Amino acid sequence: MAQDRIVAVGLLTTRDLERLGSGFRRCFPVSDDQKFEDLLRAIDEADAQTDLRQTRVEGGEAPAA
Prior knowledge:
The chain has helices at residues 14-20, 37-58. The model has no long low-confidence stretch (mean pLDDT 79). The chain is built from two helices and no strands. It is mainly alpha-helical.
């Protein structure tokens, strides 16, 4: 039997899960104990860099190397 592959990892609120409905079956709650602060900060920084690069490309500037 083929093993399911992970295609996405996300941070969702309870409201997000309610909107996804019963079709969304696999979630793993995490506690709000600051263990993920470094990871969340790194994700935010990477996202900001991606947004900056995208803005430069759309604005006609070459992305930073």
